[in-house]
Amino acid sequence: MQDFVLLAANLDRLIQALRAAGYQVMGPTLRDGAIVYDEIHAVGDLPQGWGDDQEKGRYRLKRRQDGAYFGYAAGPHSWKKFLQLPRRPVWQAQKTGHSMQITAAVETVPAMAFLGVRSCELHAIAAQDRVFVTDQYRNDSYSQRRAKLFTVAVNCTSAAATCFCTSMQTGPGVTLPCDLEMTEVIDGAEHFFLLRGGSADGEEILRQLPLSPATERHHRLAQDAVRRTAEQMAQGPRHFDSADLQALLYRNYDSPSWDQVADRCLSCANCTMACPTCFCSTVEDTTDLSGDHAERWERWDSCFTGDFSYISGGAVRADTRSRYRQWMTHKLATWYDQFGSSGCVGCGRCIAWCPVGIDITEEVQRIREAESG
Amino acid sequence: MSKTQGRPKLAVWKFASCDGCQLSLLDCEDELLQLADAVDIAYFMEASSEQVRGPYDLSLVEGSITTEADERRIREVREQSKALVTIGACATAGGIQALRNFADVQEFTAAVYAHPEYIATLKTSTPISTHVPVDFELQGCPINKKQLLEVISAFLHRRPPQVPPHSVCVECKLRGNVCVWVAHGTPCMGPVTHAGCGAICPAYSRGCYGCYGPKENPNTSSLCHWWQQELDADRATVVENLRNFNAAAPAFERESRRQEQRHGEE
């Protein structure tokens, strides 16, 4: 497939081409001391020259030495907030006399283009697709949003210390289909994007951009940048062999490590909300004062809350130990049985955004150590 | 008379409190007329001097118990009420006046009043549930008026109220707030605090100070440990945050006493 070079000075042309094609462009932007995902109107909205430092329970913006547009790692938001809405109306009911009219909520679903989707994030979207689109309980709201989605993936050239996609085989290079794939390269004074179309819609956008054919040198620079990112993670403390995770967790329901992590875990649900694959939701049914009007809303829920496992007689998972075990075992083991893949893509959000720095890779290690005595 | 027939009778009671939670009810401007249609507001001194005698179908109780007279009065209220719902931090967790529980109330009255001998007060400020059975506790200082309407609607239509007891963190994440704890290093009570406010403080880049009281299953000791070890909070700050408006909530009280005790040992 033919690759092209788009000079960084022309990046705005890509954004405008997507907007002109009718897409609402969603991408990274600076807000409240972090790089979040929001609507992007022009290249000036992107966090150019900003990166981040991340560790367990800690995230800080950092000025980069260069003018990279995508020089940051996974932040507080994930794309799921645009596909699986945090809150949405499901239906409403109106009582008139002795009859009741139930009306399903109709959404106006926007066509969105996600700008700067990392490989781990493509894997996360694919994981949610298996839950909401191809599994037996289809979610129409998600499916409609997903069907109209255009993805501009970016090969990852900046991992945080919390990243471990190489351990989960989800990155840093793009390995799943997307509409456009790009790699940001900064080499001295030269700043460009190596671009490749991945779909007919992607090719159509490419045709509108001021591109030049990529040479072998462009390819080499792009590959080097992604390779360096992979090497950085491979040498980091969170690199581990994930091949036996399912068996490991199934052998260790009674590991003493669950008690240790429960001492620290706040059961606050931050990890599940930040996780790009966690898909659980609840429905809330309400009436107004008159009782003539009722509504059902869907909202993100978490296996870390008491209500989540509440059935007649009480919560099945009343204590933190059982909640953490449920989450981690689902993420790394039972997800395979349910959906045929891992539920973890190695983005590290649960590590950085855990207020008390609980690190899922460290917990794997603790379980291993406890088992080997 | 016929106007009130068939409608449930609502009463609103005040004990030791600032009236802010009752005012939340009056603050429901758009829904107030609908409320008056749905219930017979039989006893609500903040709104009307007209008093309809009990029994009442639903009693909303604001305030904590701080006097012997109120210890008797809350039992009378309970006897007259089919359902009793506490509203706010005072009624649910003793309120800010429960700070006396950690000190000598006589010293306080001596310092504040010219004639402390005129003050007849208990040594402690206690939640309503210490004295009588409570059907539902709506937390918050003050309560959220939308949640209050939800609780009343739920009561009227015999369904469980949608008042999730999870953390403020969930509300932050639903709003898309950037975590002030992780991204700014700001100590925040959100992870142990009951949702309901809509995460107002973190939305304006300040830490939650726990005015909605403990969430279900709160891990206060882990929170306090991280505040001190990683966020450079001193012990006084930790204790002050546990002892704002919900000082006598068991989870917060236990932890604040534990923190003080550890301080004493060091």
TrEMBL record, chain A:
The 4Fe-4S ferredoxin-type domain, residue ranges? 254-286, 335-363
Q: In its keyword annotation, does this UniProt entry include Magnesium?
A: no
Which molecular function term from Gene Ontology is one that the record holds? metal ion binding
Write the record's keywords in alphabetical order, separated by commas: Iron, Iron-sulfur, Metal-binding
Q: Does the keyword Iron apply?
A: yes
- Pfam families assigned to the protein according to its UniProt record, in alphabetical order: Fer4_22
Q: Which SUPFAM superfamilies match?
A: alpha-helical ferredoxin
Entries under InterPro entries matching the protein: 4Fe4S_Fe-S-bd, 4Fe4S_Fe_S_CS, Helical_ferredxn
Recorded superkingdom: Bacteria
Quote the protein name from its UniProt record. 4Fe-4S dicluster domain-containing protein
Recall the taxonomic lineage recorded for the source organism.
Answer: Bacteria, Pseudomonadati, Pseudomonadota, Gammaproteobacteria, Cellvibrionales
TrEMBL record, chain B:
List the residue ranges forming a coiled coil, or say none: none
Instruction: State the superkingdom.
Output: Bacteria
Q: Care to name a GO molecular-function term for this sequence?
A: oxidoreductase activity
Keyword annotations from UniProtKB, A to Z: 3Fe-4S, Iron, Iron-sulfur, Metal-binding, Oxidoreductase
Instruction: Name the coenzymes or cofactors required.
Output: [3Fe-4S] cluster
Q: Does the keyword Iron apply?
A: yes
Q: Which InterPro entries match?
A: Hydrogenase_assoc-protein (IPR051349), NADH_UbQ_OxRdtase-like_20kDa (IPR006137), NiFe_Hase_small_N_sf (IPR037024)
The record places domain NADH:ubiquinone oxidoreductase-like 20kDa subunit at: 18-154
Pfam families, from UniProt?
Oxidored_q6 (PF01058)
Instruction: List the protein's name.
Output: Coenzyme F420-reducing hydrogenase, gamma subunit
What is the organism of origin for this protein? Microbulbifer donghaiensis
